[in-house]
Amino acid sequence: MKKLLIVVLGWLIVMTACKKNSDSAIPVTSSSFMFFNGVPDKAYDIWLDSAKVGSKVIFGQHTPYQSMRAQLYTIYMVDTSNPRDTIRVGQINLRNKRFFSAYLGYDSANKVLAFRTLEDDLNPPAAADSMKLRVISLNYAFRSNGQAVTMDLFSQNNKFFRGLGFMQFTQYITLFGDSTYHFNFRPTDDTTAIPNKLDFPSQHGKVYTLITIGNTLSSDKFKTFTITHN
């Protein structure tokens, strides 16, 4: 019996060693994920499968990037004011060595939450004195006839983006860094109404997402938030 026991233990040690060698041959993959909450008066916990990646994220705040194994995940949210209700948002495929962000907004027309995920390009701009900027619109507005109003983004009188609607986003553009841009947000193709303005300081080498929230036509109900990704 003693001899048999030694043989078995020896076999287990060999199998363990083989498993370690096999595991080391499998490349370790990783991806990064962050979450932004654009819903006023709400805070959320965020989960990817069973991993909690955000805790009590309040309006206008975002989590730092969380490093995750690169694979397919199911996204869950929990409204901290109703912790028994878990919301299954959907799935996201976190790819190796990539960065992703998720944005939660509120659709005031249909009275439902809206969720969008984006891949973040954190590669620095080609020119050393430049920065990169994109915009995601969580804002809304409606004309008296019920037609939705989209938004244009200008820097002074230079149009950068046109026709942004609710939950839409732009591609990155490259702009000169170390500057302050005097942004103004206008109803699409309306050159007279400028209800909202923002002075936007930038630094070279940075990657920014500008998030707009609220009523496009109201200076009281329109807000902006900026994520600096690097």
From TrEMBL:
Keywords: Signal
Signal recorded as keyword: yes
Keyword Transcription assigned: no
Signal peptide start and end residues: 1-19
Origin superkingdom: Bacteria
Pfam families in alphabetical order: DUF4397 (PF14344)
InterPro entries xrefs: DUF4397 (IPR025510)
Stretches assigned to the DUF4397 domain: 35-139
Official protein name in the record: DUF4397 domain-containing protein
Record organism: Chitinophaga varians
